[in-house]
């Protein structure tokens, strides 16, 4: 099983990065055939989408649509297409995913999706028919889990992209809240268990 871990944090070795590592350990626990590639988006050249719609209008039978922008997204989209499952992680900044994660998701949408018919004609549906799975990890420095619904728009967006572009069912999510006060130790086991659900 090939997993792709996408880190949308600007800081390596901090909360999201550490929780993703715990999830990776969980995904590998008791499994010998799990291959994981971890990608820090801050290390990649990911340019803003031009909204030119070349990808959306490309041949719907192609597994990966053409993008006119030459950067690292060509390699990243190929890796997303080949993967069997995903671990997505991002801090929640101002209630949303980081800017680099949002830029990445915008670029993914129509390159790996084609116009479908649900819920409206023209909405994205996955180009791949291969069923995949995903988990989502988000963190907030200040807002506790009790107040997640008022500050976490990131999880909903990631779930939507997983469904509409990657044909991936999100089998679980983790909100690590108030980490500036609580630390992350309480969330490490939860991240580990979440990773196990990805490969179970």
Quick structural overview:
This protein has helices spanning 15-28, 54-57, 73-82, 99-109, 154-166, 179-182, 185-199; strands at residues 2-7, 35-40, 85-91, 113-115, 124-126, 132-139, 168-176. With 200 residues, it is α/β, with parallel strands linked by helices. It has one domain (2-199): Rossmann fold (3-Layer(aba) Sandwich), CATH 3.40.50.360.
Describe the structure.
The protein has 200 residues and is an alpha/beta fold. The radius of gyration is 16 Å and the shape is globular. The protein has helices at residues 15-28, 54-57, 73-82, 99-109, 154-166, 179-182, 185-199; strands at residues 2-7, 35-40, 85-91, 113-115, 124-126, 132-139, 168-176. Helices cover 36% and strands 21% of the residues. Strand 1 (2-7), helix 1 (15-28) and strand 2 form a beta-alpha-beta unit. The chain has one domain: Rossmann fold. The protein has 7 helices and 7 strands, in the order E-H-E-H-H-E-H-E-E-E-H-E-H-H. A 5-stranded parallel sheet has the order 2-1-3-6-7, sandwiched between helices. Strands 4-5 form a two-stranded antiparallel ribbon. The longest helix has 15 residues, at 185-199.
CATH architecture: 3-Layer(aba) Sandwich
Record field, number of beta strands? 7
List the secondary-structure elements in sequence, H or E: EHEHHEHEEEHEHH
The best one-word shape is globular
Average residue-wise pLDDT: 97
Report strand %. Answer: 15-25%
Distance between the termini: 11 Å
CATH class: Alpha Beta
- The biggest beta sheet, please? 5 strands, parallel
| Poorly predicted parts | none
Q: Can you say what the CATH homologous superfamily is?
A: Flavodoxin domain
Rg estimate, integer Å: 16 Å
Per DSSP, the total helix count is 7
CATH topology: Rossmann fold
The helix-and-strand class reads alpha/beta
Helicity range of the residues?
25-40%
The main sheet orders its strands as: 2-1-3-6-7
Number of discrete domains: 1
């Amino acid at each position: 099983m090939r997993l792709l871990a996408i880190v949308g944090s600007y800081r390596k070795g901090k909360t999201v990065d550490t929780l993703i590592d715990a999830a990776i350990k969980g995904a590998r626990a008791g499994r010998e055939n799990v291959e994981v590639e971890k990608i820090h988006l801050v290390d990649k050249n990911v340019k803003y989408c031009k909204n030119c719609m070349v990808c959306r209008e490309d041949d719907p039978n192609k597994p990966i649509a053409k993008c006119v922008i030459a950067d690292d997204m060509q390699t990243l989209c190929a890796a997303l297409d080949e993967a069997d499952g995903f671990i997505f992680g991002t801090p929640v900044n101002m209630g949303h995913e980081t800017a680099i994660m949002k830029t990445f998701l915008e670029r993914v949408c129509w390159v790996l999706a084609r116009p479908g018919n649900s819920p409206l004609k023209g909405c994205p549906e996955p180009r791949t028919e291969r069923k995949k799975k995903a988990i989502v990890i988000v963190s907030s420095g200040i807002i506790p889990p009790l107040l997640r619904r008022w500050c976490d728009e990131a999880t909903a967006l990631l779930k939507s992209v997983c469904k509409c572009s990657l044909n991936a069912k999100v089998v679980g999510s983790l909100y690590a809240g108030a980490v500036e006060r609580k630390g992350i130790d309480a969330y490490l086991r939860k991240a580990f268990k979440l990773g196990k659900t990805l490969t179970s």
